[in-house]
Design goal:
By secondary structure, this protein is α/β, with parallel strands linked by helices. The chain contains 14 helices and eight strands. Strands 1, 2, 3, 4, 5, 6, 7 and 8 form an eight-stranded mixed β-sheet that branches.
Length: 321
């Protein structure tokens, strides 16, 4: 059953009417009802198109968090073959918030890392809503080093509200683990491509998104802090999250203008949750194109270009902000 966001109410009402008429059509006057269904379908499609063409930053935030939006494991299942998951950081334990392993992408070996939020109550608890602990980032470092050793490129599927802020995580060195993971990304001699699928939250995202190419889905968000968190700090009022979202420049369109991301991946009309297969396919095409751009570069050139890319972000923001 489709779940609607608050701002999608006009579309929800039209589609509810369509479903009601379809139920009537199954029982009686198929011709007359069929004409009305067709008219309403056109109207609903146009309403959805108009709505998603003018989303506010806050509305994009809600779309990025949509519970039916495809997650990391959906992309792995749709884009990769022969996926072999690997677990544990060899220091403390396993963290299911970060999925990692090796697979084939378009027939070639890749290492894949990603935040998994879960799609049901049970799986969300298992994966801690995609909020990784230190052992998750240390697992990521372990796999990145393995991929680098065997000259295997890496894909990062980013979707997290941020690293887990619990006391245990902080006691086990959360900040240090994020820093080490970010450093491991920068030191890779193989190409890595990151794609922001939904939420790209703070250091929890950057830890695996410091990549040669950073892609971002059209209605995803990428920020140093959540809008609610920023509102609480700036105004001591989390209800001003909408205002914070507008001022923070967290949308794909803003971040492309600042040079923080390299490409926006177009989503199906109505968001990735409306047509997950199409969204996954579009992401796959963009990832493949990004790897093609990086093909043939030697290890030192890959490292240098990646470092220059991130050093240039600050200069770009100063001149365009």
């Amino acid at each position: 059953m489709r779940s609607y966001l608050d701002f999608e109410k006009p579309v929800a009402e039209l589609e509810a009417k369509i479903e009601e008429l379809r139920a009537m059509q199954a029982e009686g006057d198929a011709v007359a009802v069929g004409e009305e269904i067709g008219r309403l379908e056109v109207k609903a499609a146009q309403a959805l198109r108009d709505l998603y063409a003018n989303l506010t930053p806050w509305q994009k935030t809600l779309v990025a968090r949509h519970p039916q939006r495809p997650h990391c494991l959906d992309y792995i299942g749709g884009l990769l073959t022969e996926f072999v998951p690997l677990e544990g950081d060899r220091k403390f334990g396993e963290d299911a918030a970060i999925i990692g392993g090796f697979a084939r992408f378009h027939g070639e070996s890749v290492c894949v890392l990603g935040h998994e939020k879960g799609s049901s109550t049970e799986s969300r608890l298992k994966h801690n809503f995609g909020m990784a602990r230190p052992e998750g980032y240390r697992k990521a470092v372990r796999l990145m080093e393995m991929a680098d050793r065997f000259d295997i490129p890496l894909i990062a599927l980013v979707d997290t509200a941020g690293a887990y802020p619990g006391i245990g995580a902080e006691e086990r060195g959360q900040a240090e683990a994020i820093a080490r993971s970010t450093e491991a990304c920068l030191n890779l001699g193989v190409a890595n491509v990151a794609i922001i699928l939904g939420e790209g939250g703070s250091g929890g995202a950057i830890a695996i998104a410091t990549a040669s190419r950073v892609l971002m889905l059209e209605h995803a968000m990428y920020s140093v802090i959540s809008p609610e968190g920023a509102a609480s700090i700036l105004w001591r009022d989390s209800s001003k999250a909408q205002e914070a979202a507008t001022n923070m420049k967290i949308t794909a369109q803003d971040l492309a203008r600042f040079g923080v991301i390299d490409q926006i991946v177009t989503e199906p009309i109505g968001g990735a949750h409306r047509d997950p297969a199409a969204a996954i396919a579009a992401a796959g095409e963009s990832i493949a194109a990004a790897f093609d751009d990086l093909r043939g570069l030697d290890r030192e050139t890959i490292r240098r270009q990646r470092r220059e890319k991130f050093l240039a972000i600050g200069r770009t923001i100063r001149t365009t902000g």
